[in-house]
Description:
The protein is built from 10 helices and 10 strands.
Amino acid sequence: MATSGILQHIGATPLVPLLRIGQGLAMPVLVKCEHLNPGGSIKDRIAVAIVDDAEARGVLRSGMTLVEATAGNTGVGLALVAAARGYGLVCVMPAKMSADKRVALASLGAEVIITPNAPPSSPENFRSVAARLAAERGWFLTDQFRNPANIRAHEQTTAVEILAQTRGRVGAFVAGAGTGGTITGVGRRLKAAWPNVRVVLADPVGSVLADWVETGVFGPDGAYAVEGIGASEPPANLHRDVIDSAERVTDEESFAMVRRLVQEEGLLVGGSAGTNVVAALRVAARGDCDGPVVTVLPDGLDRYRATPWVQAWATAPRP
Ligand code: PMP
């Protein structure tokens, strides 16, 4: 089915320099404002791409129900697409995700199923539950962690836009990985255009992925509060061969950076944007790359209003 209405306005997001936070660094830092997508996140791109691909392959037919394991943003993107194209939507979400995201999904008409914060091997894990429901009920599993249409969406849209917006000159691309779609798709396409580009994973402390990128062996698995990135095992859509190095970022560093992005740059972004920018600033400060450092701001602050780290801003003095 043709993409129409609001779905046409997914992507084509601004790429802007960090004018204040990025001052005095060896390389400029440019941030891609994915929080300005219609559904408020970078995941709108993959939602429409996955549905387009499934429709084209004939595996998704009108009236069917979509089911996804989601930290929230893919669910919101899928809700936009489901509304525009007449599909049902069920989102399976781990309990750790913000209450704002649950409310957003339910208000968009999705059925929300909350699972315990269980490891991937557990039948209670959000991905296991989504796969089981798809098999039992005949729902279409959009499967963002494995579906190659996720990576393709970033190769064909996010990366192409970055190349046009930088006139093809990118020193480094920095991003966290939830499904891995962003860093794999953008990284691969940028390297095809300009082999010198460095691709850097921004990883929360507590995720196993940074060690895995550097050594091939999983790091220690711990708890962290940043949502949507990091993992306790690498997802299929995260391709290690595309990534050159990793930066480890604590929750405190990520959330302090979000506050600076909001209050110094006017960028109303979520926690993983903080992680990405902390890592991008380190790469830009070292200056060992040939051009500007580009990163993404995956979603917006609105999705986190009820979290303890945003609530604390009201009482804690401005840093
Ligand atoms: N940040 C947020 C807030 C997200 O929801 C996601 C997706 N899980 C990401 C970053 C990571 O994107 P990707 O799935 O493409 O790795």
